[in-house]
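Pasting as-is:
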Amino acid sequence: MFSLSQPKILIIEDHLATLDAIKMIFEFEGYITMNLSNAIDLHTKVAAFKPDIILIDILLGMTDGRAICTELKLSAHGSIPILLMSSRNNIHNSAFYKTHWDDYIEKPFEMEVIIQRVRMLLSKKAQQD
């Protein structure tokens, strides 16, 4: 269950300027953030940080963010909500991957829109717990 006062958000984004911008948005909103530019040792980092929600870019260099979503959802971390992000239109339309994230947002996005999506996912998770 997440803390309403300071929820934890894990942001995985390989474009450092975008990562910094998302980090600033959520830290300003009172979130505790962990920021990664790749998925190396991801399960260890997720287990240690215990995020309430994870934001993942779909294109992480040579790694497909959708595959990371699938890996996480099929692991012990499967109950953590995932918001998938991408600057490419309709890249999320894949029958195989479709069920392995909780929501999707296209870049560029408005600050208020991503904040609303994260709040909605956290609220939904809290109702399920």
